[in-house]
Structures are given as C-alpha cells and as structure tokens.
Amino acid sequence: MHFEIIIGAAMIVITTIIQGVFTMVGVEYMRDYADRHNEPALIWSTLRLAAFVLWLFLATITEVWVWAALYISLDAFDSFETALYFSTVTFTTLGFGDIVLEDKWRLLSSFEAANGLLMFGWSTALVFVGVQWTFENRAQHRRKRTRHD
C-alpha cells in the first residue's frame, strides 16, 4: 500500500508539471497574440479561444497517456489500448467499472481519479481566464477605436 501511495503521489507531481508546462505555453500564446493584433475580428478571437481549449485538451490527453504508460510498466494490463481506456475512464471520473485494476494496484485508480478532478478544475479555470481575456481584449480595442473616431 505504501508503494501505491508513493507512485500515486509521484504521478500527481508529474501530471502537475505537465499541466504547468501546457498552462505556461498556452497563457503566453494568448497574451502574445493579444499584444500583436490591433483589432481582432470576432472569428479570430473565437478561433484563438478554441485553439486554447484544444491545447488544454491536449494536456489532458498527455496526462491520461502517462497514467496508461504507468499501468503498462506495472504489468497491470496486457495491452496499451486497455490501459489507455481504463486510464481515460478513471481520469475523467466516468468510472464504468467494466475494467478494474487487480487488488495490489487498485488504490492507484483513486489517485488517478483525484488527479483528473484537479486537472479538469485547473483547465476549467484557465478556460474561464481565456474567455475573460478575450472579452477584455475586444473591449479594449473597441474603446481605442471609439477614442480615435
């Protein structure tokens, strides 16, 4: 059990680092784009926001794959496809229960589910910030345009 706790905690650290890297790159992109473009059209603002959401989704996919790789390295599953399916269902807290870990590894699924909740919360907060930045950026450009008219 102690080994499972250590592995689970290490995985949370690893996925937090992954999420942090994706966050920093995505946030820098959002800020740089806003600084470089004087008057964003509605379609470009929407596409930029959609790209940001997809970027965060890629972070989630990466984290799920890291968990799946762990399960394969522990010989918890026979195939990567099964490990990936289990990891996806667990990380998203969907939890069908059609595939489960054997008793010696079952505590890891709790760590992964908790990890998924944290990472989805983090991503949700970032999407909110992205929407907020998009509206603020558009409002700022509208104010500038109004002052010049």
TrEMBL record:
Organism superkingdom: Bacteria
Residues covered by the Potassium channel domain: 61-127
InterPro entries in UniProt: K_chnl_dom (IPR013099)
Keywords, sorted A to Z: Membrane, Transmembrane, Transmembrane helix
A Pfam family matched in the record: Ion_trans_2
Gene3D superfamilies in UniProt: 1.10.287.70
Regions that span the bilayer: 6-27, 47-70, 82-101, 113-135
Protein name, entry field: Kef-type K+ transport systems, predicted NAD-binding component
Native organism: Methyloceanibacter caenitepidi
